[in-house]
């Protein structure tokens, strides 16, 4: 159910189905966590943002940490799926590199602020949170590794190191650009980093 459909159900005064209510609560929690950070956010704030009572919120999530983890998992899944979609979208490796870099830039520039949960979490000392954050690098790099190894014939270890480098380039540069874009548009920044990445990885001959 989309946000518009949820609003429509709300307007009619009907009770939301459980899956729709959960989606609504996660959307509200994202707004609060992205704006305040984990420690400053309160379940009262999230319930108020969602327009529900705290008991309703606790029916879906036993506590703030569990709610944060559910939101973080969803955010990580989106980054990973965007990367996989870019790799699946074409067999042209130059376009694949551009698409992968665009996935990171589009994600950090999205007005939801979800990227802060993944790349700027203030809970990285928590093992469950750290595991989710690291999953982004691990799974994105794994997908890219397969493409590099298949196309270049490089050993898996070498292909994986190159893949991790590409993921790091996309993540770090996108976050830097968001904080200090100067006169660079998102498209300009993406093209610059994609060009840099392609000049490097494109030098490895096809298998």
Radius of gyration: 19 Å
Q: How many strand units?
A: 0
- Total helical elements: 10
Report how far the terminal alpha carbons are from each other: 45 Å
For the largest beta-sheet, the strand count, sense and barrel status come to:
none
- Helical content, roughly? over 70%
Describe the protein's architecture and organization.
Helix 5 (64-88) runs antiparallel to helix 6, helix 5 packs parallel to helix 8 (127-152) and helix 8 crosses helix 9 (156-179). The protein is mainly alpha-helical and 207 residues long. It is 75% helix and 0% strand. It is elongated and about 60 Å long. The model is unreliable at 8-14 (pLDDT under 50).
Brief sketch in words of this structure:
The protein has helices spanning 3-11, 18-36, 43-50, 54-60, 64-88, 93-109, 115-119, 127-152, 156-179, 186-201.
List keywords for this structure.
mainly alpha; 207 residues
Helices and strands in order:
Elements: H1 3-11, H2 18-36, H3 43-50, H4 54-60, H5 64-88, H6 93-109, H7 115-119, H8 127-152, H9 156-179, H10 186-201
Helix pairs in contact: 2-3, 2-5, 5-6, 5-8, 6-9, 6-10, 8-9, 9-10
């Amino acid at each position: 159910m989309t946000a518009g459909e949820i609003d429509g159900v709300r307007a009619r005064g009907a009770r939301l189905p459980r899956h729709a209510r959960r989606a609504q609560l996660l959307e509200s929690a994202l707004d609060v966590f992205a704006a305040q950070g984990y420690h400053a956010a309160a379940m009262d704030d999230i319930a108020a943002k969602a327009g529900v009572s705290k008991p309703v919120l606790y029916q879906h999530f036993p506590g703030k940490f569990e709610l944060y983890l559910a939101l973080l998992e969803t955010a990580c899944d989106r980054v990973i799926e965007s990367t996989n979609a870019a790799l699946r979208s074409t067999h042209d490796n130059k376009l694949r590199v551009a698409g992968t870099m665009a996935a990171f830039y589009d994600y950090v520039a999205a007005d939801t602020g979800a990227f802060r949960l993944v790349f700027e979490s203030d809970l990285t000392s928590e093992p469950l949170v750290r595991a989710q954050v690291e999953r982004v690098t691990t799974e994105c790099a794994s997908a890219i590794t397969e493409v590099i190894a298949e196309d270049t014939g490089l050993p898996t270890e070498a292909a994986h190191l190159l893949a991790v480098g590409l993921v790091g380039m996309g993540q770090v540069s996108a976050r830097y650009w968001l904080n200090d874009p100067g006169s660079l548009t998102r498209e300009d920044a993406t093209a610059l980093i994609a060009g840099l990445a392609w000049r490097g990885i494109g030098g490895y001959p096809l298998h």
